[in-house]
Design goal:
Blueprint (H helix, E strand, L loop, with lengths): L3 E3 L3 H7 L2 H15 L6 E3 L9 E6 L2 E7 L16 E8 H10 L15 H8 L2 H4 L8 H5 L6 E5 L5 H19 L8 E5 L2 H14 L3 H4 L2 E5 H11 L6 E2 L2 H15 L5 H13 L6 H6 L11 H21 L1 E2 L1 H13 L7 E4 L7 H10 L7 E5 L23 E4 L1 E6 H11 L3 E2 L5 E2 L5 E4 L5 E5 L2 H17 L7 E5 L2 H13 L4 E3 L9 E5 L8 E6 L10 H6 L4 H19 L2 E10 L11
Parallel strand pairs: 1-5, 6-12, 6-13, 7-8, 7-11, 9-10, 11-12, 14-17, 18-23, 19-21, 19-22, 20-21, 22-23
Antiparallel strand pairs: 2-3, 3-4, 4-5, 15-16
Helix pairs in contact: 7-8, 10-15, 11-12, 15-16, 17-21, 18-19
InterPro entries: DNA_helicase_UvrD-like_C, DNA_helicase_UvrD/REP, P-loop_NTPase, UvrD-like_ATP-bd
Protein name: DNA 3'-5' helicase
GO biological process, one term: recombinational repair
């Protein structure tokens, strides 16, 4: 640790300094970290005799105090003594501030300000904060519903915490009502493994009784489908992702001389044929292909249908499955047998495929408190479009929109919402808007840092992470992400070279390490501080995604909106502070003309 650290209260001031002054301040801190002692100037007539000023630039000075006040003067302190930088101001203003400063202990670490009902929770360890439910939301998690219910809301409104508390409530109620029936009765499911692992760990906190906890199965939607199909098959399914499938089908389409790309065929299969559960060619010819960019005449649909049917048949011979296909098969298996659960709680619901919803509908019998659905259409990172009503899931009269955020500061929300540009399509074919959305928390403005080259960007990142650590933020409460693995590798090298331990974003259990990964891995997670690196126009949106649109303006806008959503989700994973950096021209997604 350096001889000069920053006080937690300085984070907000630091974010408002000009980039040049930020660099000057960090240069002083780096020199101290390298072993150089800062030249501290006493302040005449100061109320606190220990206060000093340190030169930051010719016209600006910082105000510092010793970290441990034991009656000795700073110049007589031990060589290893540490000082805290309280503020950086124009020299005359810094001297006035220093003279008026009263001796008092600085805050333990930086926290956003919030209403009185959240004061205790904001001051608690972050692990406890992650399961803290807003007092006004207990009624949502403990209510009795006559059927399925849908809770939607923007980032920070507590949807995931609501889902956790709802699952815990249903498990406790089930244990009280059916003490002799010990089977898993509640399914808590979500979009990917990292989220499921995080949910399981937090649910352990809420349900310390092993008997009650055992009534909840936490599983990804794909793992549920795999377990259902595998239980009724002699061989475990071999999965193939969309990208690999598109490559396979592209080669086949070229060999067959077809005028369709592999990506188009895979999307048509998953987003139309499987999504609408079409089994016959006439159904496909008649169907509305909502959301699909390329028009298909009836004669072309016949050709696509036959091609997809042949390619899927070849997959079955190889024993290969796509994830939506596996969910469709699981739904068929479940409809022939008994339901698996009495209740299901669905997190990140906006990203589920219609086939996965059919599987859930078959896994839980229709009735009171059957499906509890939480999500935000503005955070949809998949191509899936769903109408719950068309899938036999009726939430009419049992939906609620959360418009108050208490897990992300207003400053981060204001900056992030400008990225989105337009409303999203809800889960019942209705437009979903963030109008009237606000936060109860206040904190520093997000920092956007432009750099001349990648080396400067990584150096600036390392400086900024060090600022957070020096201010008292625990390493595991910090996340750093890039759009691709190339950026992430650079992040890891820079932080590790500075002696800052790192761990993958999905490694939720390891303490003492800053979390790093791609922006996609941030989905559904929560951190105190988030840094996004490489938000440059040549990296975001990716060149490959733009080229895939092949000049089609509608397809290009679809690509850009997906990237906006991804960036929006990544930015709003930060509760306290957000840092964004780029090399050269910033991404068009964060500029006014983008």
């Amino acid at each position: 640790m350096s001889a000069l650290a920053i006080a937690p209260t300085f984070l907000s001031d630091f974010s408002h300094l000009t980039p040049d002054l930020q660099l000057d301040t960090l240069a002083v801190m780096r020199a101290c970290q390298a072993g150089e002692r800062p030249e501290l100037e006493p302040v005449a007539d100061a109320a606190d005799p220990h206060v000093r000023v340190v030169s930051i630039s010719p016209d600006w000075s910082g105000v510092v105090v010793p970290e441990a006040r034991d009656g000795e003067c700073p110049e007589d302190a031990a060589p290893g003594a540490r000082y805290r930088l309280l503020t950086v101001r124009p020299r005359d203003e810094a001297l006035r501030f220093a003279r008026d400063l009263r001796p008092e202990a600085p805050a333990a670490d930086p926290r956003p300000s919030g209403p009185p009902e959240l004061a205790g929770a904001l001051g608690a360890p972050f692990r406890q904060w992650q399961v803290t439910l807003h007092p006004d939301q207990h009624r949502i998690t403990e209510a009795h519903y006559n059927g399925a219910v849908q809770i939607t809301g923007g980032p920070g409104t507590g949807k995931t915490v609501i889902a956790l508390h709802r699952a815990a409530h249903l498990a406790r109620r089930d244990a009280a009502d059916r003490p002799d029936d010990l089977r898993e009765s509640v399914l808590l499911t979500t979009y990917n493994r990292a989220l499921a692992q995080s949910l399981a760990e937090r649910l352990d906190q809420l349900l310390p009784d092993p008997g009650v906890r055992a009534r909840v199965r936490v599983s990804t939607i794909d793992s549920l489908a795999r377990s259902v199909v595998q239980a009724h098959s002699s061989l475990p399914p071999r999965m193939v992702g969309r990208d690999e499938l598109a490559r396979r089908w592209r080669a086949l389409a070229l060999a067959d001389g077809l005028p369709f790309s592999g990506r188009f065929l895979v999307d048509e299969w998953e987003q139309v044929i499987l999504a609408k559960d079409l089994e016959l060619l006439p159904q496909y010819i008649r169907c509305e292909r909502s959301g699909r960019v390329q028009h298909l005449a009836p004669e072309h649909r016949r050709q696509v249908w036959e091609t997809v049917r042949r390619y899927v048949g070849a997959m079955r011979v190889e024993g290969l499955w796509s994830y939506p296909q596996l969910a469709a098969e699981a739904a068929r298996v479940l409809r022939r047998g008994a339901p698996l659960f009495r209740h299901a709680v669905v997190d990140e619901a906006q990203d589920l495929h219609p086939a996965q919803w059919r599987m859930l509908r078959a896994a839980v019998p229709e009735g009171p408190d059957d499906l509890f659905i939480v999500g935000d259409p503005h955070q949809r990172v998949s191509d899936n479009r769903v109408s719950l009503a068309s899938l036999g899931i009726n939430v009419r009269g049992r939906g609620q929109r959360l418009r108050v955020s208490y897990r992300v500061t207003q400053e981060i929300l204001d900056w992030s919402m400008r990225v989105l540009r337009r409303p999203a399509l809800g889960m019942d074919d209705n437009a979903d808007t963030l109008a009237g959305y606000r936060s109860l928390l206040r904190g520093p403005e997000p920092v956007v840092r432009g750099c001349a080259d990648r080396a400067e960007e990584l150096t600036a990142l390392g400086d900024w992470v060090r600022v957070w650590l020096e201010a008292g933020v625990e390493p595991e409460e910090i996340a750093v992400a890039g759009r691709n693995q190339w950026v992430v590798r650079g992040i890891a090298k820079e932080l590790e070279a500075r002696g800052i331990r790192t761990a993958p974003l999905e490694d939720a259990g390891r303490t003492g390490s800053v979390r790093i990964g791609t922006m996609h891995r941030l989905k559904g997670r929560e951190f105190r501080c988030v840094a996004l690196v490489g938000v440059s126009d040549h990296l975001l949106p990716p060149k490959a995604a733009i080229e895939a649109a092949e000049g089609d303006q509608v397809a290009l806008e679809h690509v850009l909106q997906q990237e906006r959503t991804l960036l929006f989700v990544a930015c709003t994973r930060a509760r306290d502070a957000l840092y964004v950096s780029h090399v050269g021209r910033p991404s068009r997604l964060i500029t006014a003309d983008g």
